[in-house]
Amino acid sequence: MELPQKFKEKMKELLGEEYDAFLSCYNEPHYRGIRLNSLKCSLETLKAALPFPIQPAPFSPMSYYIPADAPKIGQLPMHHAGAFYSQEPSAASAVTALNPQPGEFVLDLCAAPGGKSTQIASLLNGQGLLWSNEIVKNRANILLSNIERMGVKNAVISSCHPETLCEGLAGYFDKVLVDAPCSGEGMFRRDEQAVQDWSPEHVEACAVRQLAILMSAAQALKENGILVYSTCTFSREENEGVVSAFLKQRDDFTLIDRNLKFGRPAFLPEARRIFPMDKGEGHFVAVLQRTSKNDAYPKPYPCRSPSVKNEVQDFYSQIYKTKLQNSMEQIGKNILLLPEALPDLKGLGVIRAGLLLGEAKTNRIEPAHAAFMAAKPEELRSVINLPHDSPEIDAFLRGEEITVDAGCKGYTGVAADGVLTGFGKCSNGRLKNHYPKGLRNK
Ligand SMILES: C[S@@+](CC[C@H](N)C(=O)[O-])C[C@H]1O[C@@H](n2cnc3c(N)ncnc32)[C@H](O)[C@@H]1O
To answer: Where is the SAM-dependent MTase RsmB/NOP-type domain (predicted)?
Structure first.
């Protein structure tokens, strides 16, 4: 790989004696990994279904290395089912540092395509709220698709400028993650474009933008709230430089040491750095804590309809055996299960709040793919469970009709090894396929 000369000079200065070891990593294949989605699947079920072995990675308890020569994983039934997320192992380090706990309100400010958001969602385990924001609209749609695939119920997805969003949600969050857009030096081994785009000027411009995003993020936190800043780059300007500049402007924040075991101390000793020599592609993680009060708090979500119509309630109980836990709301044509303690969403570029259950059509309600992805088989009235290596699951994921038991009727979830991967409608021994066209295997 041809690395930019100026990049090499900077790395030599940064790494000193370790520079040769760093450079020789570019002759090795890059690390590949997956992260178990504990919302949907157990480790045993996932291991049994994968066509290659996995090895634990040190960056999170849910992260695993996969072999460098593993086949493409995006078409595997367990990937469609959201049993795992494809994630370079060291990328999981930022959420390990954030340490989200069930019940907390967490903002992921630069969230697409959703690797870290879906990791946060697993750790929240359905309790509390994940707000995932992505400024670039088409990337926000990819983020939404990943949130749906991973079966997340308690998330809000928005596409908003960080400044507008954090002003609107000032004082609302326990934890905020800024996984900032960066020059991507830690991506060089797997992304040739990042090498092409690199220049010292780009590094400088990234640092300016990163500081602006951090300054916005600071507003969104409650007193004692935690702010994690991470990048996948090595430059001091974008890492320690940005954190130091932030602390100069916000002396009500302190850098804290989480006693993290991965990687090595950064040039600010409380922060961590990961190089390829540390068994990951490259990351920087710093944990900051707000010490000042935040008197701001957003207005609550206005209560719209005291109760949704009977036909919407009936629709819910046609699909689910379980009782309704959250408030169900119809917004336009969308029928949603809203997370608790939502703030007012107006003006924040929200593209999804909570779980999409279905869409109101002229005389009926059409169930949504997301409603089945977020369910467990035992919660559904009707479900077909197929082995992950069966011809039927392959046919289903290609969008074909499949033969089912003659007794199977109506909207029916389809699971691979007990993990929901979509739905269809059964009648006369056939399941009409409702797997979304854009997600189907070719
Ligand atoms: C490193 S990526 C995030 C990766 C994501 N956290 C994950 O784990 O999948 C940074 C994101 O920041 C977004 N971004 C670009 N400019 C931005 C800005 N000015 N403010 C906030 N986000 C920005 C990019 O579109 C990109 O999706």
So the answer is: 22-291
User: Which atom of ligand 1 is found nearest the CA of 114?
Assistant: 9
Establish if 120 belongs to a structural domain. Answer: yes
Residue 74 domain-assigned (yes or no): yes
Name the amino acid, one letter, at 153: K
What's the length of the chain?
Answer: 442
Note whether residue 432 is domain-resident: yes
Torsion of CA 215, 220, 225, 228, to 10 degrees: -50
Nearest in space to 186 (alpha carbons), one of 114, 284, 333, 92: 284
Kindly state whether residues 365 and 389 are assigned to the same domain: no
CB 243 within 8 A of CB 266: no
pLDDT at position 120 over 90: yes
Residue 348 has pLDDT above 90, yes or no: yes
ipTM confidence:
0.99
Mean pLDDT of 370-399: 98
**CB under 6 Å to ligand 1: residues?**
91, 110-116, 134-136, 139, 162, 179, 181, 209, 213
For 188-197, b/e burial (b = at least 16 CB within 10 A) is bbeeeebbee
Same domain? 179 vs 56: yes
For ligand 1, what atom is nearest to the CA of residue 179?
A: 6
Structure tokens at 194: 């990042």
- pLDDT confidence of residue 39: 98
Give the residue numbers spanning the domain of 438. Answer: 377-442
Helix (H, G, I), strand (E, B) or coil at 266: coil
Opening angle at CA 56, ends 94 and 234, nearest 5 = 35
Contact present, 366 and 359 (Cβ < 8 Å): yes
How many structural domains are present in the chain?
A: 3
Task: Give the tens place of pLDDT for each residue, 176-230.
Answer: 999 999 999 999 999 999 999 999 999 999 999 999 999 999 999 999 999 999 9
Mean pLDDT computed over every residue of the chain: 96
Q: Is 134 annotated as a binding residue?
A: yes
> What are the tokens at 332?
């336009």
